[in-house]
Amino acid sequence: MRRGALSLLLVAAALSAGCDQRPAAPPPVELFLDRHWAEPLPPQGPPPAGFSALEASLSPRACGQCHEQQYEAWRSSLHSRSVGPGLLWQLRLMDQAQANRCFRCHAPLAEQKALLAIEHEWQAAPLLPPPGYVEADLGHQGLVCAACHVRDHRRFGPPARPDVQSGTAHGGFTASAAFQDSSFCAHCHQFPPDGPRVEGKLFEDTWNQWAASPMAPNRTCQSCHMPERQHSWRGIHDPDTTRSALDLGLEVVAPGEGRYEARARVRNVGAGHHFPTYMVPKVELEFLRRDPDGSTRTLGRQVIGWTVDTQLTREIEDTRIPAGESREFAVPFTAPRAGGWKVELVVRVKPGEHYERMYREHLARDAQLPAQAVSHLRQALADVLSAEYDLTRIVAAPPAAAPVAASIAN
Ligand code: HEC
Ligand code: HEC
Ligand code: HEC
Ligand code: HEC
Ligand code: HEC
Questions:
Q1: Angle 254-256-257 from CA coordinates, rounded to 5°
Q2: Best of 61, 161, 173 to mutate for ligand 1, by most ligand atoms within 8 A of CB?
Q3: Residue 28 vs residues 5, 9, 261: alpha-carbon distances, Å
Q4: 3-class secondary-structure state, position 154
Q5: Tens digit of pLDDT for each residue in 364-386?
Q6: Ligand 5: residues whose CB is within 6 Å?
Q7: pLDDT score of 245
Q8: How far is 322 from 379, CA to CA, in rounded Å?
Q9: Count of other CB atoms within 10 angstroms of residue 158
Q10: Any residues with CB less than 8 A from the CB of 381 and at least 6 apart, and which?
Q11: Inter-residue contact 271 to 336 (CB < 8 Å)
């Protein structure tokens, strides 16, 4: 559909080109992004004559010499870790063409793909060493500054802030409103309509979820994930960001003699897409009964998320909460009518739950894997487990006991 709209635009542009001598209007966001995120990205080519080695370098460290704030924030972000052990062990099982499909989002520069091909000794790896403006570790630096900002060695960015002095470094830059548009992120956070699906749902559908949400008219991806243009992209791995998504309520109701139900109501007030947006993270709701003597027992668990089997063929459940909507999670239980107990709800976030299951299955058969894959795989599992955290706990008391004639046996 996007292609269709685009070719119409191109036809319109071609038709008007001959007869209209006024300067062309700036290309609309869609046209800019189609070129900016060409697939695959072409190599930068030789740097312009007047460039110093620092200006020509594609390394985030070089950009950080002058753009310190962006560099420090980026370094703390997951974008800087997109070539981590979770990707690296899988590369050992792939050929170059398969790996390039992953690099489109995880290491998109042509120069990064070339370095990774040399490292993995893939057949079509370049024979010559990389040019001087490509540092040896660029392949492992993940989603680098240049992937979003540099084409043909030219810088592209959002319109300058009014208070910023224009400089002469790297020949200035070209401003485009596309950097402030949610579609900028869609290249990697939205699969195309013919992408893989389970139960008819695209594995990655964040932009569509956002576009259909009540937030879309007022909030871009950037406004939530890059406030004040910060380059930290906090998401579900960050407790404060996740907390800002949720409004939580807990109540205990008593539908019958000695029978109770703990009901958690969870509203997605702060994420501009489903909570959570795709199948990898899970948010676990654990319901506990706390007795006055300090003992606890688990009453039950419920999961918020889209659970799919590790073969990616079968949906197990989908309890994600669309933006602005709420969902109830209930656990029935029996308990003595009196006794001063309370129900506690523990909210636990597992940002990489799907991968945890998948990594464990592969580790159980590690004899079949190349040795280089196994050490990355172990590290990937350790990383996924250490990303888990308890988000919050809330407590509710049962309704005041109504006077009942018969006592309840337990
Ligand atoms: C030698 C210092 C220096 C280096 C190295 C450098 N920059 Fe810049 N950059 C500047 C200056 C100064 C400006 C402001 C230029 C202007 O406003 O015309 C700028 C502007 C920009 C802008 C535009 C900001 C806006 O308001 O939209 C972007 C994007 C950018 N640089 C990205 C990069 C990236 C990516 C790298 C590394 C590949 C890099 N720069 C390396 C000094 C540098
Ligand atoms: C995932 C893509 C992406 C990556 C990676 C990225 N940026 Fe940006 N950058 C953006 C977007 C989008 C904006 C505009 C945000 C907005 O206007 O809300 C931006 C804005 C900027 C600006 C203008 C900031 C301002 O306050 O006016 C500079 C400078 C910049 N980036 C430099 C860098 C540098 C240096 C790095 C690496 C350390 C980097 N960027 C990494 C997407 C990216
Ligand atoms: C070139 C591909 C690419 C682009 C463009 C891109 N991202 Fe990402 N993004 C990724 C990848 C890959 C990851 C996962 C990194 C990892 O954990 O290995 C990621 C991770 C994230 C996360 C972290 C989520 C978490 O689990 O906590 C957020 C938030 C995010 N991106 C937001 C954005 C936003 C907003 C934009 C647009 C300004 C954007 N991204 C543009 C590829 C991209
Ligand atoms: C269309 C873009 C895209 C493509 C293609 C893609 N990924 Fe990702 N990948 C992402 C994004 C975005 C995230 C982070 C999502 C989030 O945290 O919500 C991610 C996260 C991951 C993670 C978890 C984070 C980490 O670094 O451990 C792994 C592992 C991963 N991808 C592996 C792969 C592999 C292997 C391929 C190729 C078969 C691949 N991806 C292809 C966009 C992509
Ligand atoms: C109104 C604010 C808001 C907007 C708009 C928004 N997000 Fe988020 N996003 C959040 C919050 C809060 C979280 C953490 C809770 C969660 O994971 O849903 C999050 C989480 C994420 C994650 C982590 C992975 C996951 O499974 O949830 C990714 C990736 C992400 N957002 C990308 C995007 C992209 C891309 C867009 C634009 C198409 C976008 N977000 C728009 C607030 C927002």
A1: 105
A2: 173
A3: 12, 10, 54
A4: strand
A5: 999 999 999 999 999 999 999 99
A6: 182, 185, 189, 206-207, 210, 215, 219, 221, 224-225, 235-236, 241-242, 244-245, 270-273, 275-278, 281
A7: 98
A8: 33
A9: 17
A10: 356, 359, 360, 363
A11: no
Q: Which segments in the chain show pLDDT lower than 50?
A: 1-20, 403-410
Q: What is the pLDDT of residue 358?
A: 98
In angstroms, how far is CA 350 from the centroid of its own chain? 14
> So what's the pLDDT on residue 13?
39
Question: Rounded to the nearest whole angstrom, what is the distance from the C-alpha of residue 130 to the centroid of ligand 4?
Answer: 26
Ligand 2 centroid to 231 CA: how many Å?
6
Closest CA to 299 of 260, 325, 266: 260
Residue 26: per-residue pLDDT: 62
Q: Is 150 helix (H, G, I), strand (E, B) or coil?
A: strand
Look up residue 149 and give its two tokens.
Answer: 């900002």
User: How crowded is residue 261: how many other Cβ atoms within 10 Å of its Cβ?
Assistant: 17
- pLDDT digit string, tens, across residues 54-79: 999 999 999 999 999 999 999 999 99
Instruction: Please calculate the CA angle 278-380-144 and round it to the nearest 5 degrees.
Output: 70
Token representation of residue 152: 């043909």
Query: Looking at residue 134, what is its pLDDT?
Result: 97
Q: Inter-axis angle of helices 96-106 and 110-120, to 10 degrees?
A: 140
Is 74's C-beta closer than 6 angstroms to any atom of ligand 2?
yes
Q: Which residues of 89-106 are buried (b: 16+ CB within 10 A; e: fewer)?
A: bbbbeeebeebbebbeeb
Q: Is 104 in the pocket of ligand 4 (CB under 6 A)?
A: yes
Instruction: Using a cut of 0.90, tell me whether the model's pTM lies above it.
Output: yes
3 state DSSP class of 195: coil
Q: 276: cis peptide before it, omega within 30°?
A: yes
- CB of 325 closer than 8 Å to CB of 246: no
Are 89 and 377 in contact, with CB atoms under 8 Å apart? yes
Cα-Cα-Cα-Cα dihedral sign, residues 190, 192, 196, 202: positive
Nearest Cα to Cα of residue 333 among 233, 248, 261, 271: 261
Place of tokens 């009453």: 299
| pLDDT recorded at residue 154 | 97
**Whats the size of the chain, residue-wise?**
410
